[in-house]
Design goal:
Blueprint: H1 2-35, H2 38-59, H3 62-72, H4 76-100, H5 102-108, H6 114-129, H7 131-139, H8 143-174, H9 177-182, H10 188-213, H11 220-255, H12 257-270, H13 272-291, H14 297-321, H15 323-330, H16 343-359, H17 361-365, H18 370-394, H19 396-421, H20 428-448, H21 453-478
């Protein structure tokens, strides 16, 4: 059981690094929705949609390739240095190109203010340059230092969000010209991006000592191996980002900024599930690669997926059960409530995505990352086609259903391909059963008992009791209880 204890210990530490910053970020949604109208919030949303695309393109799968070859190559120092030099070179080229043609590119991407595009470029570049240093910390077991840097990043981001969006507006109404000179009410969205840039710069500065520890040793052969491994991950990442974000861009074009802003605000509640998924992934990815050569690796992966599904399902039922309370905490402004009906669907979609991420270990361990590209591309095709079919008929609900359909299909395809290429003894009946109970309870809660705290609490407790009855033997064994 020491293997599982080590895994869960790392996951908890990485969970703090991933969940706490993201949780604070979700809490900042209240500040943003209170400060920005839905149409203004749509500008903020579009900015981070493009930031997601930039992040995928600029890192081009090198983080996952780093984990793969750090564990398989004898000269690990060359893997570290080669990966970082590659990222650094492409980042500097991208920085020069994007800033040189910023006016035409920003217009093509729909930026009304070219300054916003410049902020996007600098944030993306700084975030890209810390990818390999952070991956090095994770693969070296320096999870506490990694967590510290992540917490510092969100602390700086939060501090400057509060300064720009909460403190300065109050000062300008009461006092001196100094505050009026540095605060521009028409730049409200820009202050969020500025806070992000400051946080990214501080985090990059903190990683400089780690970067200087890397010995300059560039190996073309290793780079070729990493590129062959990573390029399908790049295209899979683009497809995944399309699945996750294209709906928001299309909604803005078809239904207007007000509707898109309300949808994006409500979507943030659904993305609470992604906090759990991210924490899990940060601990799981290096762990899975480290376990790959052990005889019981497939059994280990099967047990982990089952418990991932159980915990994720509990998250879904809990959030749906207390949706009114959670919405009042995170959204505040009731102008965003009109899109609240998407939350249960988005929660289920993100749970499907998390299960897919677990299943995807088969093509990463067998160096068949091209299958990840194929599966993600299939998901993107489903997303795009369903968006164009459903949004004209049922509005923003069509975007939510497109997301769950895409991730559900990806999950199934990955499972059946994985059975052929890297068999893992997943407990499909138990996992499927938990998913059905989760969906059933969530539907019952949202449609018939929305706002009834007592009934929803009983439903949650019944689900937990069911899990205990079915899993008590394994729980006792894991905890070494008699």
């Amino acid at each position: 059981m020491s293997t599982f204890k080590r895994f869960f210990k790392d996951t908890i530490i990485y969970g703090v690094a991933a969940v706490l910053p993201k949780a604070i970020n979700v809490l900042l949604v209240r500040l943003h929705t209170s400060t920005l109208s839905p149409s203004e919030y749509s500008v903020n949303t579009s900015f981070y949609v493009w930031a997601a695309y930039f992040n995928i393109v600029l890192t081009y799968g090198m983080e996952t390739a780093f984990f793969r070859f750090f564990n398989s190559e004898k000269e690990k120092g060359k893997v570290i240095s080669t990966a970082f030099i590659s990222i650094l070179t492409t980042s500097l080229f991208a920085l020069f190109t994007l800033l040189t043609f910023k006016d035409s590119i920003s217009t093509a991407l729909g930026f009304s203010n070219p300054l916003y595009f410049s902020l996007l470029v600098w944030i993306s570049i700084l975030d890209t340059l810390i990818v390999i240093p952070f991956a090095y910390l994770r693969v070296s077991g320096l999870s506490k230092k990694y967590t510290l840097f992540r917490l510092l990043n969100i602390a700086v981001y939060t501090l400057f969000n509060l300064f720009f969006l909460w403190y300065l507006p109050r000062k300008t109404t009461n006092t001196a010209a100094f505050f009026n000179d540095i605060y521009d009410p028409s730049f409200k969205e820009g202050y969020i991006f500025t806070a992000n840039l400051i946080a990214s710069a501080v985090t990059f500065i903190c990683t400089i000592p780690i970067i200087f520890k890397f010995k300059i040793s560039f190996d073309k052969n290793i780079l070729k191996k990493m590129f062959r491994y990573s390029w399908p991950i790049l295209f899979a990442g683009i497809a995944y980002t399309t699945n996750e974000n294209l709906d928001k861009l299309i909604l803005e074009d078809w239904l207007g900024k007000e509707t898109m802003g309300a949808y994006a605000g409500a979507y943030k509640i659904g993305v609470i599930m992604s906090l759990f998924i991210m924490a899990f992934r940060l601990g799981a990815e290096p762990f899975f690669f480290n376990q790959a050569n052990k005889k019981n690796a497939p059994t280990t992966y099967a047990i982990i997926l089952k418990w991932f599904t159980i915990i994720g399902a509990v998250f879904v039922v809990f959030i749906v059960g207390y949706i009114d309370i959670i919405a009042s905490i995170f959204l505040g402004d009731k102008a965003y409530y009109k899109a609240l009906s998407i939350v249960p669907i988005i929660l289920i979609a993100n749970l499907f995505l998390g299960i897919y991420n677990n299943l995807s270990i088969w093509y990463k361990l067998t160096d068949k990352t091209k299958y990840g590209m194929y599966i993600s591309t299939l998901g993107a095709c489903i997303t795009i086609s369903m968006l164009y079919i459903l949004i004209p008929k049922i509005g923003f609900m069509g975007a939510a259903w497109a997301t769950v359909a895409a991730y559900g299909t990806m999950l199934l395809v990955s499972y059946f391909l994985g059975k052929k290429h890297y068999p893992v003894p997943y407990d499909v009946k138990r996992i499927g059963g938990y998913l059905l109970v989760c969906i059933g309870l969530s539907t019952l809660s949202f449609l018939y008992f929305k706002g009834d705290i007592l009934i929803n609490t009983i439903l949650i407790l019944l689900f937990l009791f069911l899990i205990y009855i079915l899993e008590q033997k394994e729980l006792r064994k894991s905890l070494k209880l008699k």
